[in-house]
Design brief:
Blueprint: H1 3-18, E1 50-52, E2 58-64, E3 68-74, E4 79-81, E5 89-94, E6 100-105, E7 113-118, E8 125-126, E9 134-139, E10 145-151, E11 155-162, E12 168-174, E13 177-182, E14 189-198, E15 203-212, E16 215-225, E17 229-235, E18 238-245, E19 250-257, E20 263-265, E21 273-279, E22 285-294, E23 297-304, E24 310-312, E25 319-325, E26 331-337, E27 350-356, E28 362-368
Antiparallel strand pairs: 1-2, 2-3, 3-4, 5-6, 6-7, 7-8, 9-10, 10-11, 11-12, 13-14, 14-15, 15-16, 17-18, 18-19, 19-20, 21-22, 22-23, 23-24, 25-26, 26-27, 27-28
């Protein structure tokens, strides 16, 4: 092969590598599984690797190394490992009781299943031992029931199960998946979004759905959209939805009344980002990430739904799409990456930063290795 031919082959190989998910912005890379695998997070990095405990004293996060483990820290930076295994563990969050942490692990299967472990450590156990291919879990606000999504990306089942009894309601939605499951604060019903394919019109569409425990076999379709839609939270008796529009999938938000009679767009400009959105406990504001101030340099913002005020909370370089807000909405903890090669790569070394939202005071809690 000529020298020019070798350079052409090398260029093609490099282009292929750069298009793989290890280098793609916000994607997960699992060194144990190899390039481009999406075993544990279902695809895009979803920013769920940080979570506050219900009492606001602890933050759970993933510490990266040859594998990944679940750690907790208090707001003074005192850190402790909750798991220590050679397996890949991710997506931790606190159960409503606050004494257990739920996370995904590939201990038994390559696709990963949810486990639970006490905050004090010890042996982890399968959260749903008789369920396979569980992709998402949400607890009801009172902790008496939970909802989970089971299945593949082509045919999913949304299940709602009482924890202390055998009551269970299954809803099958044929399509490319159910996701962003959420309960309103008072419980009694749940919301989710489902991606489906219209075989007649040959197009994909997204629906916001509602399920009530009083009529579990009846699924109500509140909204159908040709753009990707996901539920965010409950905002003053309305459902906050995130939409992605255009070729660049530009994120935007809208408020949908529960009877689907009115839909109100939120006048908010976002260039990229909004990979994670946290709505306030009172439903009057939400926090999101965006690079609106500087392209591909992300910061966190707080948008007041009532007044329309959009306040920038951070002025950092290297912010990664992982953050969580304390229950009293006074503290914001986020992961600040030490950039190398690609700014928002989730495997970057990083520091856990705690920010006082009112005063702007910040401190380092520790490093995510």
């Amino acid at each position: 092969m000529s020298a020019r031919g070798r350079w052409v082959v090398l260029a093609v190989l490099l282009a292929g590598l750069c298009s793989s998910s290890i280098f793609a912005e916000g994607r997960d890379y699992n060194p144990k599984k190899g390039l481009g695998q999406r075993y544990l997070t279902g695809g895009e990095f979803d920013g769920q690797n940080l979570d506050f405990s219900p009492d606001g004293r602890l933050v759970v996060y993933v510490r990266l190394g040859r594998s990944s483990d679940i750690w907790i820290t208090d707001l003074e930076g005192n850190q402790k490992a909750v798991t220590s295994t050679p397996f890949w563990e991710t997506r931790p969050f606190f159960a409503p009781s606050g004494d257990e942490i739920v996370f995904w692990s590939d201990r038994e299967t390559d696709v990963g299943e949810p486990y639970s472990v006490l905050t004090t450590g010890g042996a982890a156990k399968r959260l749903l031992p008789n369920v396979s291919h569980c992709r998402e879990v949400k607890f009801a606000p009172d902790g008496a029931s939970l909802a989970f999504v089971q299945g593949t990306s082509k045919s999913d089942v949304l299940c709602w199960r009482a924890i202390d009894s055998n009551d269970e309601w299954n809803v099958r939605v044929t399509g490319e998946g159910i996701h962003s499951v959420m309960f309103p604060p008072e419980g009694g019903r749940l919301f989710a979004t489902a991606a489906q394919f219209d075989a007649i019109q040959r197009r994909k569409y997204w629906s916001a759905i509602r399920l009530s425990n009083k009529a579990p076999s009846q699924v109500e379709y509140l909204l159908t959209d040709s753009n990707p839609v996901s539920t965010v939270g409950w905002a003053n008796e309305r459902l906050l939805l995130r939409r992605e529009t255009g070729i660049a999938y530009t994120p935007s938000y809208c408020l949908l009344s529960e009877d689907a009679a009115t839909s109100t767009s939120i006048a908010l400009t976002i260039r990229h980002g909004a990979s994670k959105t946290i709505i306030s406990k009172g439903g009057d504001a939400f926090i999101y990430d965006s690079d609106k101030a500087s392209p591909y340099d992300y910061d966190l913002y707080r948008y007041d739904i009532q007044t329309g005020e959009d306040r920038r909370l951070t002025h950092e370089s290297g912010l990664l799409p992982s953050f969580t807000v304390s229950p009293d909405e006074r503290q914001l903890v986020y992961l600040l990456g030490k950039r190398h090669f690609f700014a928002r790569h989730p495997m970057s070394r990083g520091e856990l930063i705690c920010l006082d939202i009112a005063t702007g005071a910040r401190k380092t809690l520790g490093e995510n290795d």
